[in-house]
Amino acid sequence: MQFTTLEQTSANPSVPIITDEEATALARATINLFRTWQLSDLEARTLLGGMAPRTWARWKEGNIGRIDRDLRARMAILMGIHKGLRYLFTDPARGYVWIRKPNANFGGQSALDVMMRGEITDLIDIRSYLDAERGAW
After folding, report:
1. Angstrom distance (rounded) from CA 4 to CA 66
2. Backbone phi, psi, residue 56, to 5°
3. Would you say residue 86 lies in a domain?
């Protein structure tokens, strides 16, 4: 049996997928989204991966520090959920209410209940559900 050697590709892990400037803008957008969704501080911190209360308080004051890769991904997924709701509902208020309404597709739980389990995969599941609903048209 003969094996072919694959050419190595260069990787540059120091180059973030989401730049620092984009991450800061995402953080501000996420704070605004959570206000619109009327989330409690606990709900907001849970969706952000268990953020410390003091860090969340600083964010709300506009003091956003370093944002790690996981948090950048969480915020990007949350923006995708927001985008999906805006596509599905012509009246934005209906989308904001939808996240708290029980849903048979989630075993009677709301989308927020699912997301509050705290895992990034829970956010991905809601995003995927919305993408599938939108794509079915």
Report:
1. 43
2. -60, -40
3. yes
Residues of the domain holding 115 = 20-135
Is 126 inside any structural domain? yes
Q: How many domains does the chain have?
A: 1
Considering the entire predicted model, what is its pTM? 0.84
The tens digit of pLDDT for each residue in 62-111 reads 999 999 999 999 999 999 999 999 999 989 999 999 999 999 999 999 99
Q: How would you class 126 by CB atoms within 10 Å of its CB: exposed for 0-12, middle for 13-18, buried for 19 or more?
A: buried
As a whole number, the mean pLDDT across the chain is 90
Is position 15 within any domain? no
- Residue 134, pLDDT score: 84
Please spell the DSSP secondary structure of 34-102, one letter per residue.
HHHTT--HHHHHHHTTS--HHHHHHHHTT------HHHHHHHHHHHHHHHHHHHH-SSHHHHHHHTTS-
Residue 10 falls within a domain, yes or no? Answer: no
Residue corresponding to tokens 């860090």 = 55
